[in-house]
Amino acid sequence: MKTETQEKFDRIIKESFIEILKPLGFKKKANNFYLPLEKIGHIINIQKSFLRFLSFSIPSKLCTLV
To answer: Which of 4, 9, 28, 49 is the most exposed place for a label (fewest CB within 10 A)?
Structure first.
């Protein structure tokens, strides 16, 4: 069973990131959004803090396709 904070985090991901990134071609797996391109791709990783409040770190990385 998920905690209230986990449910809020899931709702934020669904209502914010998925609605914005999916129409741009990103695919979601866990807390990662991946946009495949011809030779490289973009990865956005959503992280949460275990402090008293929820914080986001959104590093965007380029990765090469193998």
So the answer is: 4
